[in-house]
Fold each of these.
Amino acid sequence: MARRKPKLAVWKFSSCDGCQLSLLGCEDELLAVVGEVEIAYFLEATRARVKGPYDVSLVEGSVTTPEEVERIQQVRRQSGLLVTIGACATAGGIQALKNVKDVNQFIDAVYAHPEYIETLETSTPIQDHVPVDFELRGCPISKEQLLEVLNATLNGRAPNVPKYSQCIECKRTGTVCVMVSQGQPCLGPVTQAGCGNVCPACERGCFGCFGPKETPNMASLSRRMAELGMERREIKHFYRLFTANADAFREESKGHE
Amino acid sequence: MAKCGSAKDAVVIGTDGLDALIKLLAKDGYDVIGPRVESGAVVLEPVDGVDDLPAGWADEQDGGHYRLTKIDSPAIFEHVVGPHTWKRYLSPPAQTILRARKRGKGFSVEEVVDAPKYALLGVRACDLKAISLQDRVFDNGDFVDKGYFARRNKAFVIAVNCTRAAGTCFCVSMNSGPEASCGFDLGLTEILTKTKHVFLLAAGSERGRKAIAELKKKKQVKAAAAADRAAAAKAVDAAAKSMKRKMRKDAARLLAANREHPRWEEVATRCLSCANCTMVCPTCFCSTVEDVTDLKGKTAERVRRWDSCFTHDFSYIHGGTVRRLRSSRYRHWITHKLSTWHDQFQTQGCVGCGRCITWCPVGIDITEEVRELGKRRT
């Protein structure tokens, strides 16, 4: 018996659209995905909208406006499984840099008419507002991990999305450690794997796009980066990138103020 | 240790002879894997000839520190061990071990054994010992890892005796180097003097003797002079004598006796639980299996991947993770490696290659941790 195609919705909050694009970027696998799910709501791909409820909702972006605070509640109510995708949805994104500053200064500096801007003082991840069933990290997310989550959901199994360090991924692929062999600062030892070790494979330290790994030892890595010649201020800034508001990174960067 | 390759029968080849050997093995259908320079380190990757080998490079190693430096020498094996180990080939980081297909109400399962024919060039004594320890792990009498032994039995092993020790080496204290005594098809020692650059070549197996005979046909082989044998022995001896680090002989007992010790909390302040030590360890063998399906759920594959006791998920059982703290993960790893391994496999678990020291981003030193446990508590 053919199974009923689950209804998939893709929602956007404050974000750059890059993670939704990963779904369109599935290319070869996209047709197979479309064959197995009904794309019910996905404005980046189609204007056609099918009414809820939805079996699976992919939520991109963080909550930065009063309107979004309301809207995420509506999305949650209409969704069976709610999966957050990307650094914005799971940690607040790069825009969470405003959390540690006075937001009005940014508004005045950026916009010609600040009076038109209605924004919250913080950028917060989706799980701060509603219960989330699964989170996919990354800036952007990995296409393989997205497919794995969809695949696992369709087949009723747990997704293979590990929470261990980037180092494991580097070592499995044979990438030489840039921290040990070149003395480059690298967030790999405290960052969750999944990106396909993009930066270390190009001989650059990891920027922590996938956010903190399980049980990260922030203090030890900070000490090591200081020994490698990083200034206190540089260490603070290093943790304040795409996942600046993730608990472990936020607290460690605060400790370097 | 019993000597398998007899230095008495050893011959001498030049760099051309080494090149001929690599090409001979390739012609015989071997994927020749050897040391080459990539991304600032000596890694173990496919090599096509002697020109691919890291001539004129030496490694500087210390805790959390590795630098490759150009040296004024044509020496090919001046480097010691790098971030890669031979388990990358014999027990690969990701391997599909079975495929399943849905059939009616059930499914059929097909076992997958992927076993390329490798020639491993430049296996150091410590790594040779590590391979022998993994042989023991992957065949415990009750269970045999078929894939591992399919690759292992095909592999042609060319050992290289170390003529230099890296800063993190401690093989002498583990009784596993710097001379490769056993378990190879061919054994090489580089001899570099003012007047010549040659390799003393000894056969350790029938396959090795055949390879030497082939090289003879190509006129690449000369008889070894007593002076060559003496020069090789002296170079290996010098490597042994220059080794700075060592493991305490009573490590197994110390670890068994100190399951509670303030040092575990101390090392946990430094340990990143990043798992680098286990990934670069030539004897660490742990793996996990992941089942992956196609979107339709018609076919599935089981993929076996390297795993590590430093992850939270490693000790996850029904109800939660057993080793939640870094202190307990580090204690588990070092205790298994140096103490309970003996009970489990009746062999040592560490070979003194020093990789876990060099490739730990914060330079935690396994020899130092044992030494600290042995100090009288105040």
Amino acid sequence: MNATFAIAGATFGEAVRKRILMVILLVALLIILISPAFEPFAAGRGARTLIISFGFGVIQLAGTFIAIIMCTGMIPTEIERRTIYTILSKPVQRYQFVLGKFFGAVSTLGFMYLMMGIVFLIASRMALGEFDPKIVRGLIMFFFQSSLLAAVVLFFSTFVSPLVNYFLSGGVFLMGNLLSSFLETIQRNPEVTPITRIPVQILTVVLPNFANFNVQNPIINPEQVLTDEAAYLVQTVVYAVVYIALLLVASMLIFNQREM
Amino acid sequence: MKRNYSKLWVALVVLLIVQAALQVRIFPLWVRNYAPKQATPIGLAPEQLLVAVAGFREFMAAILWVRADGFFDSGNYDAVLPMLRLVTWLDPHNIDVYSTGAWHMGYNFTDESQRSDRRYIPMALKFLEEGIQNNPTVWDLYFEMGWMYYHKIQDPTNAVPWMQVANEYKDMIPARRHMLSHALFKSGRFDEAVDHWGKLFLDAEKNRGKDWESSQLYDVRQNNLEDTILDLLRRYGSNPETQPPVDLQFDATVKVVRPRVLLVEGRLGIPAIGCRVTVILRDKSRTLEYSPKALKTFTFEVDPKLTYMQDSLAVREEKFRREIDMSKDPKMYPFKAEEYEVEFIFEPRYASPNIQGRIGSDGVGMWDARYLETVREKPAPIEVPEYAQVPDTVRREVENPTREVEYKRVRKVITLTRADILMLGRRGE
């Protein structure tokens, strides 16, 4: 376990030194900080919608970019630089290497979300004159979403090149965001035949569902009365953990069999 | 190593099943609480769609809504409609967009004489229905639907069920609860109106003196309860003020003075100020169905061939007269049908209190030898969404209404042809 944490620590250190990730973080922080400037565009309720939705949008986008950019090169770069041989020649199992890399990525995401979250809370407090604790809930869900995406990217990075990984991960993220909406729409339409519906249902269950984590809407529109909200949030977090575990196991299986 | 692999494979399969089971459990809750519930992003440019998908749905909606507000301020009403569609697609939980949008459709499309284009009303009702389906746990849109019937359509009978549903929500603004009593009273359900005022009064009594607002609410409800009971006693008690009935001697005529310009005039024998006669000109045998079910799917297109004009004529010294000019708005009044009906109606449900004091709010104190008719009606059944926070008794009542109401009105219908209205032949057309 020490080896896993050592690798995680090294991964975290390496990630926070990466200029591209820091640039994304700084740009995101800057944009969130200036979001109160939207207030004059719409008074009262409209201003709240603009500022909160914009903040969530920026954080989600930055989280997505950071997860993809950080994780695509994690394993291929180690192989390319041959540093992986040095690591694996020590008493480090391959699964520990994969786990270490993932935990390092999640720590980095956690750090970035913490930074963005603090700035977002300050900005929204400045603009709206109140602190909305529900924002924290949205940030936590986005953190799990990015962590799941990081696991997807890490999984692909065990067997595809970084360039292919960008497209694959981006595609899975997009599909994972849209499938639930698509399924809901075709379920409401009585004219859709089972031949169309069943493959969508299967895909929705099999692919990682990123839409589950998009819980910002009721935070932006506070009139909404939600049913079993706590149960939903808990189940979604458990879903993220289980799916991440699934992807890590799959990554280990592939990485263990990989010739190096 | 082989042993480890088989363990990993087993773990993989187990995790796959567990995540699938979790997703199956999460999906219905997601649909209920978070699903956008709109099908197609028609009208979004690719870059807008990308921004929307990239987590900026609500932000994009808010920006478009601000833009729509700009169009509204500049009087570009037509441009507001597609914006409404986009905004509600991106953020179907923004209640303001549904309520403001429906108000916009129902009230703001007018002709040169500020007569509203009533062909947009079914569209407004459909839009509100969509909002209700997307936001079943919020009271506002049920109320807005009720208000549209109560105020714009002046159909208190169909306003009642929507206001009943809204009234079941605990967070409803207290003053808005009064509207159910008003609607019940106007629709002739006097006993229920008094009961509701009574309940509201008792509710207000609990908080009386707590603060200025609570005391004010108590006073308003007390006054309304007393006034309602007094009105009923005066109008329907022993020795009622509504008897003997007033002979209205109602009559109306139409004259085409220029192509598409009608002179309507007539008589209504009520010796009091404040009466209004409704005049409707429409394609013969075609009425506008004021119901969310009138449109199969939501559309911003009104029937371009349908002519439907409605105006309200003030009665002074028992007479009314108005020149109605429909020549400046050919899109609103296309006159494509061969025959038209001009309908004159006076009904007491929306008359002012001094007039209702004499003839009753259901017309019990009015008489006309030629045009008096009794209308008997029940509210149309409404579809209450599955997740609405409504007790079963109320749900059953509004989904299968049984209470019939009746009121009296005078109504005269005159038939005109297209040639009459356009004065074809007289000017060599």
